[in-house]
């Protein structure tokens, strides 16, 4: 559990075995299955990879909170939570928690997008950076049976989230990266219709906002 709390995208079975020292055998399978069945851990598919190439992600809200704020805290500040308002550590935790919240409410997101009646498989996607290209990640991919793919960027914001030109360019670069790294020929729903989710609502497209980047 503590290992999984160190990486939002989770770890593969092989990585878990390497980091914990547990042999990659039936015992590890049983432990992971227990955590998944008890709803502490989520099995996340990676878009474009084989079905058995999954990652195990911590999904329990209290566990995220415990490892972030309780486990190594001396607990001497009775006003810690108020004093930590908008601190970097609290903002990171809020972002992680909001992402988990979205992934726990896929059916509601699909209904908001108007695709609740379409069969789909959900996954995420990431590519590691190298000397030539920077890394990229897409938080939620809805791979639909009607041959359209929704790419969803999950952003937590305490206030209204404004899409700047830089943000829009970053999203479009991710779309190009996933096109280039995957042989799937479906229409990606950039089309041009990518979706960002913040504070539980879809955020409008960049061309619907005034330019506030300057």
Any chance you could write out the topology, listing elements then pairs?
Layout: H1 13-20, H2 26-37, E1 41-45, E2 54-58, H3 61-70, H4 80-83, H5 88-103, H6 106-113, E3 120-127, E4 136-144, E5 148-154, H7 165-181, E6 187-188, E7 195-198, E8 201-203
Parallel strand pairs: 5-6, 5-7
Antiparallel strand pairs: 1-2, 3-4, 4-5, 7-8
Helix pairs in contact: 3-5
Keywords:
214 residues, alpha/beta, Arc Repressor Mutant, subunit A, 6-stranded mixed sheet, two-stranded antiparallel sheet, disordered C terminus
Description:
The protein is an alpha/beta fold and 214 residues long. It has two domains: 99 residues, Arc Repressor Mutant, subunit A; 89 residues, no CATH class. It has seven helices and eight strands, in the order ααββααααβββαβββ. Strands 3, 4, 5, 6, 7 and 8 form a six-stranded mixed sheet that branches. A hairpin with an 8-residue loop joins strand 3 and strand 4. Helix 3 runs antiparallel to helix 5. The chain starts with 12 loop residues before the first helix and ends in an 11-residue tail after the last strand. The C terminus is likely disordered.
CATH architecture tag of the largest domain: Orthogonal Bundle
Order of SSEs, N→C?
Answer: HHEEHHHHEEEHEEE
How would a textbook summarize the main sheet? 6 strands, mixed
Distance between the termini: 43 Å
Radius of gyration: 19 Å
Mean pLDDT: 80
User: Roughly what percent helix?
Assistant: 25-40%
CATH fold-level label of the largest domain: Arc Repressor Mutant, subunit A
CATH class of the largest domain: Mainly Alpha
Taking pLDDT < 50 over at least 5 consecutive residues as the criterion, the unreliable ranges are 188-194, 196-214
Shape: globular
Main structural class: alpha/beta
> What's the helix count?
7
This entry's quaternary arrangement is single chain
């Amino acid at each position: 559990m503590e290992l999984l709390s160190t990486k939002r995208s989770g770890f593969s079975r092989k990585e878990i075995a390497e980091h914990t020292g547990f042999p990659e055998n039936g015992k590890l399978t049983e432990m992971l299955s227990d955590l998944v069945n008890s709803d502490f851990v989520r099995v996340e598919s990676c878009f474009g990879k084989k079905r058995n190439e999954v990652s195990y992600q911590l999904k329990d809200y209290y566990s995220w909170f415990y490892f972030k704020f309780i486990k190594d805290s001396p607990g001497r500040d009775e006003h810690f939570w108020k004093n930590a308002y908008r601190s970097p550590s609290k903002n990171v935790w809020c972002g992680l928690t909001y992402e988990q919240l979205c992934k726990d409410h896929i059916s509601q997101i699909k209904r908001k997008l108007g695709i609740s009646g379409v069969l789909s498989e959900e996954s995420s996607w990431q590519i590691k950076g190298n000397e030539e290209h920077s890394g990229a990640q897409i938080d939620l991919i809805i791979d639909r049976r009607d041959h359209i793919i929704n790419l969803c960027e999950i952003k937590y914001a305490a206030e209204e989230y404004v899409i700047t030109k830089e943000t829009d360019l970053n999203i479009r670069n991710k779309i190009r990266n996933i096109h280039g790294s995957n042989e799937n020929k479906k229409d990606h729903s950039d089309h041009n219709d990518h979706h960002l989710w913040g504070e539980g609502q879809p955020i409008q497209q960049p061309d619907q906002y005034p330019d506030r980047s300057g």
